[in-house]
Amino acid sequence: MLARDELHQLVAAYCRAVDRADYGALRDLYHPDATDSHGSFSAGGVENFIAQLQAAEPYVRVSQHNITTTNFAIDGDTARGEIYCLVFHTFAGPEHDVDVIIGGRYLDAYTKHDGRWKFSRRTIVADWAYQNDPSRVNFEHPSTRGSLRGKPGQADPSIDLFAPDRG
């Protein structure tokens, strides 16, 4: 059960790192020789994946990765996982923003070194996707009006929550 909890923390840390554009934290979740296959967006080593994320960053208005069902098979210091996810993106376009909503799964391989689990291979499987063109985001409902707005990268309101005490 401890290994399952540690693996769940790993996949949750991935979501936070990718959504907050924290590339140092993201890099630290992968073994140096790990691969990440995100379809035509990126395939190959983790540095290639991070370079693609950095190139896309100016166009990403919303990035939210959500983990739902997790299935792990653990064998000593190696493991495999099928991680169900819902991913929401809003991308800036030349005339208007576009929403892309994806339901899919990550097929992962993990290895534990020095007491810490990391990704050794990650592959995205897209089961379905919706595109709203143009974006249809509306924050006028009383349940969202006046609330803080989440933002991709380091401008998100949560950054200060986890920052070391400065005072």
From TrEMBL:
Alphabetical list of SUPFAM superfamilies matching this protein: NTF2-like
Residues covered by the SnoaL-like domain: 2-123
Region feature Disordered, mapped onto this chain: 139-167
Name of the protein described by the UniProt record: DUF4440 domain-containing protein
